[in-house]
Amino acid sequence: MLPKNPYTFSIGLATLIAWASWLVVINKMSPFLSGYLSLALFYSSLFIALTGTFALLIYYLRTWIRKNTADSHYLNIALREGVLLSLMVDVGLIFQRLRVLTWWDFILLFAIILLIEFYFLARE
């Protein structure tokens, strides 16, 4: 079955490649030996993989709830929300690695992401 939007296939393929690269970074690179390179590859591949995963989940959830034809406008919104959610996860993981993450920091991070999304929704 072909997807309703032709861009979802390419996003799904890029997401699979990003998850594969994230697994390669986890299994083949040591953060103690490679230093900042392995950490940069870890966080960037995780960011791309989570962005694609969140974007596809949000897109298909949105089209399933609204029960109408898939629109590229929904995909744009889903990509934006996927980027924001994966940014929140990556920043949370970076804070955790630095041992500065507390529950109120994560709530503040979530509130910042929510305010950014509200800004974009108000512009539409």
Secondary-structure blueprint:
Elements: H1 6-28, H2 31-34, H3 36-66, H4 72-97, H5 103-123
Helix pairs in contact: 1-3, 3-4, 4-5
Distance between the termini: 33 Å
Name the assembly state: single chain
Structural shape: flat
pLDDT below 50 for ≥5 consecutive residues: which ranges?
none
Q: Assign a percent range to the helix content.
A: over 70%
Number of helices: 5
- Give the tally of structural domains: 1
Describe this structure in words.
With 124 residues, the chain is mostly helical. The chain has one domain (6-123). Helix content is 85%, strand content 0%. It has helices at residues 6-28, 31-34, 36-66, 72-97, 103-123. α1 (6-28) runs antiparallel to α3 (36-66) and α3 packs antiparallel against α4 (72-97). The model has no long low-confidence stretch (mean pLDDT 89).
In short:
The protein is built from 5 helices and no strands.
